[in-house]
Amino acid sequence: MDLSAINPVLLIASLMVAATPLLLAAIGELVVEKAGVLNLGVEGMMIVGAISGFAISVESGSPMLGLIAAMIGGALLSLLFAFLTQFALANQVASGLALTLFGLGLSALMGQSYVGIKPPAMATLDIPVISDIPVIGPILFSHDPVLYIGIALCAGVWAFLKFSRGGLVLRAVGESHDAAHALGYNVIRVRILAIMFGGACAGLGGAYISLIRVPQWTEGMTAGIGWIALALVVFASWKPWRVLLGAYLFGGINVLQLNLQAAGIAIPVEYLAMSPYLITILVLVIMSADKSGAPASLGRTFHASQ
What we know:
This protein is mainly α. The protein is built from 12 helices and no strands.
């Protein structure tokens, strides 16, 4: 066992990369759930975003076009969930599970011809002078643009929910859709927009995996990140900054266990592989004692005739 081979600077920089797809998916799902909708199809939207972004990036030669395509793909798939739950009034849990299964199958079909192909590389934002600062530069200022977008998105969602009129309407719909409807707000429109936002974020998170973190296409490569994102939102008490903390905690433990495996630590690989999930859930359960963030109408179907 050689722990000296683990570089702390690279470890911290890598955990930020590992946390980004989880952060993107979870912050999108947080907005969806704040609107009173429970979408269990995050994993399906992520994997469709992963193959959509990968395919467009390979065909066009532009990673940015691939990321945009991934957001569109995730949002379009989320519209299927929106139709089922907001117009057909189907059960949200069953519809979300069906969306995940559909997304996994669709992505496998779409990705058959892209196995073994390497996508164009995404440029990093190496800021002159700042990125050359020892320790701090490689950790904070030498990453791809999407990583910074994820952090900015978390801050933006927090500000939107806390300070804007739109955030107030969204929270009102999530707390009591009947009261929001009585006040003249279009509950279905608000929820559809929230669902599409969540789908776009999940698609972007999926594309981050296939284009940046692991630049290749492999069937089922999201590997349960969508389910972790769902759990993260609940255990973070629907608070954006706790979602950020949980995502970085998961990313850090995931990267650490990979480094420990490479260092040859005398712990079975299976225990190391499951440690990020166990520790993240344990810490977030401890943090989730405050239940005040749970939307009162979460998972409840709104009937427009009410």
